[in-house]
Write a structure and sequence with these properties.
By secondary structure, the protein is an alpha/beta fold. Helices cover about 45% and strands about 15% of the residues.
Length: about 230
């Protein structure tokens, strides 16, 4: 049975992957883990970066004795998976991304950073603040916000993967996007898809950016079809 690693996004945790893991557990050996600082995992000493999270994926695979795995990554998790496929292709069989933002510049990063103001979240969406506190305990979720803002600012100043980098990723990749995603554009997703030498592209109908609102049965079907029926 093939290995399938499911990766959460920024401010997320491995617990969010449970519905998808349940839908796929009969077909794959499912793995999930928390990136540093997420889901109660201690904060790393290094500054948050895509390179750091890619290293954490590689280390998880080595520690688990997995020579090669299929990887599904939601949002930031998809970007980290692509980075791993770029720099350590021997560890990756196939990659599936969903709602992954590939285009970053200073303006884009500033817009996203503005949405991560802890005081505003507490005042306007207290339920989300409580969710973040519970999800990342015993870590301080406000500290996680600050470190995530540093990550996004860093991407805005120097996008980790440039357009030309995708042309060198020979790993089979399925790029997925929800048709109602207001964070990730169709244009940036298709631009990456067209650069990849061995890729497919798909749209999930009626799907916004939030992972909790994804049709997990449909997503599981698309993942399984891609892994099992593509060379």
């Amino acid at each position: 049975m093939q290995h399938l690693l499911l990766l959460h996004g920024a401010l997320g945790s491995k617990d969010q992957m449970e519905p998808l893991a349940t839908a796929l557990h009969n077909s794959y050996q499912i793995h999930t883990f928390n990136f540093g600082g997420h889901g109660g995992r201690p904060f790393p000493e290094k500054t948050f970066s895509i390179s750091l999270f890619s290293e954490q994926i590689a280390e998880y695979l080595r520690q688990s004795g997995i020579q090669q795995a299929n990887i599904f990554g939601y949002s930031m998790g998809g970007y980290a998976a692509m980075h791993l496929a770029k720099h350590h292709p021997e560890q990756v069989n196939k990659v599936i991304t969903l709602a992954t933002k590939f285009h970053w510049d200073e303006k884009t990063a500033a817009r996203e950073v503005k949405m991560l103001d802890g005081k505003t979240i507490q005042e306007k969406v207290p339920a989300f603040a409580a969710q973040l506190q519970q999800r990342h305990a015993p870590n301080d979720w406000l500290a996680l916000l600050d470190k995530t803002k540093e990550l996004l600012t860093g991407l805005g100043n120097n996008n980790t993967l440039q357009p030309e980098d995708y042309a060198t990723i020979t790993t089979p990749v399925l790029v997925l996007l929800g048709d109602r995603d207001k964070m990730v554009s169709l244009e940036e997703s298709q631009a990456v898809y067209k650069q990849l030498p061995n890729a497919r592209f798909g749209i999930l109908p009626g799907t916004p950016h939030a992972f909790e609102q994804v049709n997990f049965s449909l997503l599981a079907f698309l993942i399984d079809e891609f892994i099992s029926k593509t060379a």
